[in-house]
Amino acid sequence: MSESKALIVVEPEREEKETPIHRGWVLGIFLLGAFVTILNQTLLNVAIPHLMNDFNTSASTIQWLSTGFMLVNGIVIPISAFLIGTFTTRQLFLSAMTSFTVGSLICAFSPSFAVMMIGRVIQGLGAGIMMPLMMTVILNIYPPEVRGRAMGTIGIAMFFAPAIGPTLSGWIIEHFSWRLLFYVALPIAILDIILAVFFLKNVTKQTKPSFDMPGFLASTIGFGSLLYGISEAGSKGWTDPIVLTTIVLGVVFVLLFIARELTTDKPLLDLRVFKYSMFSLSAAISCIVNMAMFGATILVPIYVQNIRGYSPLEAGLLMLPGALLMGIMSPISGALFDKFGIKPLAIIGLGITAITTWEFTKLNADTTYSTLMWLYTFRMFGMSFISMTIMTTGLNQIPRELASHGTAASNTARQIASSIGTAVLVTVMTRRTTYHMGEYQNTVTSTNPSLYDSFQSLSAAFGAKLGGSVEQGHAYAISILNGLATKMSTIQGINDAFVVATGLTILALIGSLFFRRVPHGQNATRVVEAAVKKAVPVTEVRTGGK
Predict the structure, then answer these.
(1) Burial 483-497, CB ≥16 within 10 A → b, else e
(2) Chain centroid offset of residue 391 CA
(3) Which of 134, 486, 494, 542 is the residue whose CA sits 20 to 30 A from 261?
(4) Which helix (H) or strand (E) holds 6?
(5) Last residue of a domain, one of 194, 210, 226
(6) Which backbone phi and psi does 399 adopt, to 5 degrees?
(7) Is 272 part of a structural domain of the chain?
(8) Co-location of 45 and 192 in the same domain
């Protein structure tokens, strides 16, 4: 047995010395930027009734402050790979944070809805690039062996910000002006910009890609229309003409975008990332998880506030422990991922999530506040094992030169999935509520003698109690029963929506059984890269053989 050897000659170092990158500073700066942008997204929802009064606009109009922000994100994220390849890390980060800061300032001072809408669009431009850029930077500065811990640290910002957002927003609205919601973001954003100016180093490489204008137009129209149509479907219904038109338009242009990117030599978003099996599987499972998670996050506040009558602040406090636990567990889950891989974490996390989501299908008019809090907290505990780790396992398989395209594709898919999940679960809740209401109405009729007699007795009792006629008692009894039927049918509709969410979670759990460990690139490539950095003249790489 003899062993062949391949000699790879590396010329002595001729390039300029690179400034060493301090990972801690880079991660901290991006973490602060992500925290403030995500926090801002969660602060506004509670303030919508106050904004309607101050700007004298309808709910559908004021909702554009959230919809517009989301649409700008949906347009920016797919082109983030081009932006990352065109500009340096510092240029892109400072531009994103400056855009977000200027937008926040405009919103804080806005005298009208139109001015505030401009501020939200400018905010969205900055926030849209933040997550893809941060994930690309992490993929560049951390090796796959410890990347789970770094991505888990990102989860602190992703989950801690939404944790305190509703609670902080509710407290501010109760005691101060809604304008303070935007002022609180300014000092954090300005501090982050200052830190970036002094400590942020360039990490990503400028590849100077050519701009694919047809791809950009197809992406903008496609993802913009699709996200708008899906976001409106939950409230207007899937058969609404505007919803149908925008969704069909979105699907057509997204398909055109895919066809363009697969056939052009220099794509705006390189869809070759989906040829990597674990990336495709993790993206699909991550989308399913997002559909279940974000949709359910809408259902719980509806039950707590609309059915049980708790205040927005109380609703925020109910969800706070779970979101905080998720933020605490995120880096721990990342460390476990580095040690054990994704499969055991996915099975444990999705198993806990499926069980707790099923428990939410048993809500009734007497479910206690503490029961809801414990259920939601344990559900978030299960989610903490999978929220960042599933995405990381897919990105780990992507070659470094495709990192920005992988993060852009992953974030785009997740955003669309979140919108679809919210719209689908709200639609299920609405339709099933109508169905259950119809059942109650059909049950309490004159053809049901026992119930009809009880209703007549109740009407007479109300009439006597109110000191009026039987007709007055009859009308009062109808209003009471109608209110109870509406309440019970809504609870049942929410329970049915959680059944769908449970089904999605089980589907993701089944998919996670196909996860496997994959090699993180080729060993020879890593050895050569290490040799170049150390300026070793000649490197000998064993390739094996007989």
Answers:
(1) eebeebbbbbbbbbb
(2) 12
(3) 134
(4) strand 5-9
(5) 210
(6) -60, 155
(7) no
(8) yes
Instruction: Using the structure block, give the residue that is written with the tokens 């975008």.
Output: 257
**132 and 40 housed in the same domain:** yes
Q: Which residues, in sequence order, are bridge partners of residue 8?
A: 539
Q: What's the whole-model pTM score?
A: 0.76
Question: Where residue 397 falls among pLDDT bands split at 50, 70, 90?
Answer: confident
User: Whole-angstrom Cα distance, residue 45 to residue 298?
Assistant: 11
What would the 3-class secondary structure string for 176-227 be? CCCCHHHHCHHHHHHHHHHHHHHHCCCCCCCCCCCCCHHHHHHHHHHHHHHH
Do 159 and 256 fall within a single domain?
A: no
Query: Which of these three, 188, 210, 232, is where a domain ends?
Result: 210
Euclidean distance between CA atoms 299 and 286, whole angstroms: 20
- Strand 538-542, strand 5-9: pairing: antiparallel
Q: Tell whether 536 is covered by a domain.
A: no
Of the pLDDT bands very low, low, confident and very high (cuts 50, 70, 90), residue 458 is low
User: 3-class secondary structure for 357-417?
Assistant: HHHHHHCCCCCCHHHHHHHHHHHHHHHHCCCCHHHHHHHCCCCHHHHHHHHHHHHHHHHHH
- Quick check: 268 and 78 in contact, CB under 8 A? yes
Q: Are 63 and 48 spatial neighbours (Cβ–Cβ below 8 Å)?
A: yes
Neighbours of 452 (CB within 10 A): 13
DSSP string, 227-243: HHHHHHHHHH-TT-HHH
Residues 184 and 217 in one domain: no
Q: Is 5 helix (H, G, I), strand (E, B) or coil?
A: strand
In a domain, 425, yes or no: no
| Phi, then psi, of 518 in degrees rounded to 5 | -125, 150
Domain around 471: 435-488
The mean-pLDDT minimum among 141-145, 222-226, 292-296 falls in 292-296
Residues 330, 389 contacting (CB under 8 angstroms): no
What residues pair up with 539 in beta bridges, in sequence order?
8
One domain, residues 115 and 249: no
> Does 163 share its domain with 29?
yes
